[in-house]
Design brief:
This protein is an alpha/beta fold. It is built from eleven helices and ten strands. Strands 4-3-1-2-9-10 form a six-stranded parallel sheet, sandwiched between helices. Strands 6-5-7-8 form a four-stranded parallel sheet. α1 packs across α10 and α4 crosses α10. The longest helix is centred in the N-terminal third of the chain and has 17 residues. Bound molecules: D-glutamic acid (DGL). D-glutamic acid (DGL) binds next to loops.
């Protein structure tokens, strides 16, 4: 069984990309909403939370894990045991970017992701990477802040790079595609009509290549807090799926 792990709703964007390709996979999803947002936490806290999350998923029967949270990539890799197969967000993207040598990319991510140096380490010198932390954005999305507030956070961050030229923007936090409309508008306004890359697609492809995606197609969601927002997103994103939601 495949286990997906995020601080909350962000991993749903990875699950969406996966479900398009693997409707029959058996999935258990852990959203640690009580501890969200992860992106503002330090490396020690993230190591502790990732260990707890991995333990929970493996105890519930997950044998193959997707860390659907960029902020956790480093700690999940460091905490993995030899018995668990893990796919995290950054290396599938790096693989995808190999054919884009010389492209100028702006990585949008949480502070934790940027401090972990996972993206530049995974990508190497293939593309010219500029990294922009957007503090507060994942939390605003998770807890359903009004669109104007989300837009203000995005715009203020982008203004720090106004005048720079990029070929693409990478959504380096799995929550960001949930605000894709706002991000797209602000990107177009400040950087022009450039490509937006959602790493979920490359991660889902990697899952298809490496993990067992045959099963009954059920999803078990485990959440550590029960806001209406999470249930609403699940019902909107997976209207035809068979799933259960448990508060743990
Ligand atoms: N969605 C996660 C990520 O990709 C975590 C965001 C957060 O909880 O701050 O980084």
């Amino acid at each position: 069984m495949i286990g997906l792990f995020d601080s909350g709703s962000g991993g749903l964007t990875v699950l969406t990309a996966l479900r398009k390709r693997a409707p029959k996979a058996d999935v258990i999803y852990f959203g640690d909403i009580v501890n969200a947002p992860y992106g503002e936490k330090n490396a020690d806290e993230l190591a502790r939370l990732s260990e707890a999350g991995l333990n929970r998923l493996t105890k519930e029967g997950a044998t193959q894990i997707v860390s659907a949270c960029n902020s956790l990539s480093l700690s999940v890799l460091m905490g993995a045991t030899e018995h668990t197969e893990i796919i995290e967000m950054t290396r599938p993207v790096a693989r995808m970017l190999r054919s884009r040598a010389g492209a100028r990319m702006l990585l949008l991510a949480t502070l934790a992701t940027i401090e972990s140096r996972m993206y530049p380490n995974a990508i190497g010198v293939t593309v010219l990477l500029d990294e922009l932390p957007i503090s507060g954005l994942a939390g605003a999305i998770e807890f359903g802040a009004p669109e104007e507030e989300v837009q203000k956070i995005v715009r203020e961050a982008f203004l720090k790079r106004r005048g720079k030229k990029y070929d693409a923007v990478i959504l380096g936090c799995t929550h960001y595609p949930l605000a894709r409309g706002v991000i797209e508008r602000e990107v177009a306004d400040i950087f022009g009509p450039i490509e937006i890359i959602d790493p979920a697609e490359a991660v889902a492809e990697e899952v298809m290549r490496r993990f067992d995606v045959e099963g009954s197609g059920k999803t078990r969601f485990l959440i550590s807090k029960d806001p209406d927002m999470f249930r609403k997103r699940v019902s909107e994103l997976f209207p035809a799926s068979s799933y259960t939601i448990e508060v743990v």
